[in-house]
Amino acid sequence: MRYLKYPKTLFSSLLGLMLCLSIAYAAESLSNDVRGWLPTKRLIDHGNPAKLRVQMLPSSSRRLGEIMQIKITSPEVGYLFLLDINSAGELTRIFPNQYTEQRMEKGFIKAGQTVIIPDENYGFDFKAIKPIGKGLLVAFLIEEEFVDGVVLSKEFESLNRTQTHATLEQLNHYLNEMLETDESIGRSVRWSIATLDYEILD
Q1: Rounded to whole angstroms, how far apart are CA atoms 97 and 88?
Q2: Short-list 92, 104, 156, 100, CA closest to 123
Q3: What is the DSSP letter of 190?
Q4: How far is residue 73's CA from residue 120's CA, in Å, rounded to a whole number?
Q5: d(C-alpha 68, C-alpha 200), whole Å
Q6: How much of the chain, in percent, has pLDDT values that exceed 90?
Q7: What is the DSSP string of 123-163?
């Protein structure tokens, strides 16, 4: 067997790179800022060609117990999904859910449609609850119905911090790789992402 000899400087550089990557991954896992997570960055980098817009009403800063609504507008038709990642890194799928499933099957919305969550059909209000701190709303608009097993599964409705990170990785892989190479329609599937930072105050 023949062994190749590498310069010590190259070995040191590779070792240093591996150490830096390990530290970066550890820092990412411990970070409380969801935007600092690599899966979040990769998703957001995709862009928003559909000009999807997310708002929190009456403002994106709410105190504990205050009522709020989420308003989403889209100039284009597609399947809408809205996720909330709170300051503890816990993920909740807000739309579609058990309250919207019958009225808006699988999150389908028309071009120019505005979605208010919750509206009068929900039968309850959204109130700001703990944990306090900064959170992130993430909205996806996907042109085709290719998301059943990933975004609509019951297990996806509410996830803890560890599961959130893994799920965002899965979403990133699905949207950026699987949909981009989908062969059933002969082209890549168009999708958009829009985000909104919000804060819950004590």
Answers
A1: 22
A2: 100
A3: P
A4: 18
A5: 11
A6: 35
A7: SS-EE--SSPEEEEEEEEEESSS--HHHHSSGGGSEE-HHH
- Identify the residue whose tokens are 């067997």: 1
* Angle made by CA atoms 124, 127, 129, in degrees to the nearest 5: 135
Just give the CATH number of 32-201: 2.60.40.2550
* Residue 132 tokens, joined: 């306090």
pTM of the model: 0.76
Helix or strand (DSSP H, E) at 26: helix 8-30
Q: What is the CA radius of gyration of the chain?
A: 20
Q: Token pair of 24, please?
A: 């970066």
4: helix, coil or strand? coil
pLDDT tens digit sequence for 26-71: 334 435 578 888 888 888 888 999 999 999 999 999 999 999 999 9
